[in-house]
């Protein structure tokens, strides 16, 4: 499993922005499909956004479309999530996930087989 470390979380007011980072300690980062999930207290972990291992495809949950942007820098072995127009309901622990040379649908369907980071807390105040 590839080690993943998230950063960039924090406390922000509604309407504000944050950029999360997920650094992977692995060679061949470009061969990993990457994704962001989140988990709010008392709720199940839910999909937020994903980017293919070739970087040409992205997918977003409906509730973040137009507000969040996922990207990756294969030279820095890092994935990002730019979050704009944040809402109190975006409050959650955000986790990054990685899967070697797989499709985005497979990452979503077989979550237990993904590598996971420890998460970073995002809190949006109203």
> What is the CA-CA span between the terminal residues?
38 Å
Q: Classify the helix fraction into a percent range.
A: under 10%
Tally of contiguous helical segments: 1
Instruction: Please write the string of helix (H) and strand (E) elements.
Output: EEEEEEEEEHEE
Strand segment count: 11
Largest sheet: 7 strands, mixed
Strand content: over 45%
Overall average pLDDT: 95
Radius of gyration: 13 Å
Uncertain ranges: none
Structural category is mainly beta
Q: What does this protein structure show overall?
A:
Helix content is 5%, strand content 48%. With 126 residues, the chain is mainly beta. A hairpin with a 6-residue loop joins strand 4 (32-39) and strand 5 (46-51). The longest helix is centred in the last third of the chain and has 6 residues, at 104-109. The mean pLDDT is 95.
Draw up the topology in text.
Blueprint lengths: L3 E4 L2 E4 L4 E7 L7 E8 L6 E6 L6 E3 L7 E6 L4 E6 L8 E9 L3 H6 L5 E2 L3 E6 L1
Parallel strand pairs: 2-11
Antiparallel strand pairs: 1-3, 3-8, 4-5, 4-9, 5-6, 7-8, 9-10, 9-11
Short description:
The chain has 126 residues and is mainly beta.
List keywords for this structure.
126 residues, mainly beta, seven-stranded mixed β-sheet, four-stranded antiparallel β-sheet, 1 helix, 11 strands, 5% helix, 48% strand
